[in-house]
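Batch job 17 of 40 flagged for manual review because the log was empty.
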Amino acid sequence: MRSVLDECELLLLAVDPLWRGRGVGEALLRDSLIRARRRGITSMNLEVRSSNNAIKLYEKSGFEYVHRRPGYYRGNDGQLHDALSFRIDMRI
């Protein structure tokens, strides 16, 4: 997590493929949000490839879609993939 003033950006949240679908990602994200709130953070941003299955987790956790960056990521196959930005307002 990288923060500036009362905003932060979640840079990486990764779960081993063998552990996906078991609530590990949800627990890691919840812990990140709790830690950010304790530091006085009022909003968190993240960016993810448009094909990433974690989008469901982010939306379920309260993140809202902000915008799309067309062709931002280049895959191993050389194809371009869009990046999606999400944000959550953590003010109580």
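Reviewer: the log was empty due to a logging misconfiguration, but the result itself is present. The chain has one domain: 2-89. Unflagging and moving on to job 18.
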